[in-house]
Amino acid sequence: MDLKRQVIERWPARWPVQPFREPAWARQEPTYAGCSPALIEAAVKRAGARPSGNWFVFAAGREIRADRPFGVRVGGRELVAWRGPDGALLVGPGACPHLGAPLEQARVHGGELVCRWHGLRVGADRPGWTALPSYDDGVLAWVRLDRIGGEQHTERPIVPVRPPGTTVDAVATLAGVCEPEDVVANRLDPWHGAWFHPYSFAKLRVLSAPEGVDVPEAEDRFVVEVTFRLAGKIGVPVVAEFTCPGPRTVLMTIVDGEGTGSVVETHATPLGPGPDGRPRTAVIEATIAASDRPGFAKAARIAPVLRPLMRRAAARLWRDDLAYAERRYALRTHLA
Fold first, then answer.
1. Which of the residues 46, 111, 135, 322 could staple to 84 if both were Cys, CB 3.0 to 4.6 A apart?
2. Rounded to the nearest 5 degrees, what angle is found at the Cα of 129, between the Cα atoms of 127 and 132?
């Protein structure tokens, strides 16, 4: 018996990090047979039929500050966000009501925005400029846009279930030439993980997937066994499930293994058309990690150091996955 096999066989099963064996990339078990296009399309349609209350994620909560405005577009609408003196989130139209100056270039004074063109002040209580309903869930910032959403509005967004207690969170944001449904379709295809992202995933196996069109919401989930690769042939094996709590949100929850309860929220937000007239969609992904191990509380204390690493890992995956989403958009709109 060679040394490598001896190490693997004697490795303590209780440790969260495990060595593993895997075939060469091209010799993996093909997954296309399980990845039925009709199955994915049906899952995307079921997600799209769920209510959103007209709420859209538009940024990480940490990006919105009290000392400077934050400009963004959602559904082609120009918005500006900042925080009041009490830290409350404020969001409203991004054009000054006087002559249309960009309020993202304004300055904050006394909790209000002061336009740099002519000094007009706007804020929650100023006439001529109406703040929009907004919500800060502690990780992400949301805005309610009833005209764009076109649904019956709700007072608050549907925030996915998150782990209780001490957590470490990080938010990555990227944008692509596609629509939200293309991003959702990518996340509802777990079969591509070890093929398209071999640098991050290994030994991926879909344990169950919803079949048919009419699937009860309690059963509308993909369950996946996968090893998150750390380095070489060392990784963390877990079981995760993918669900859609809303039409533009896919939630991955670790249900067994290290970090049980941790989630990855993927929010697809329409930005509006780009200069070429094609739609742009922002992927705003929040990773919220938790663990019941005693050392996790100490790790949480250095969250500012961990967040850039977490964002970098998510961004690497989404640079690839946006190519997938953009390709899907091009094919279904005959632009390829």
1. 111
2. 125
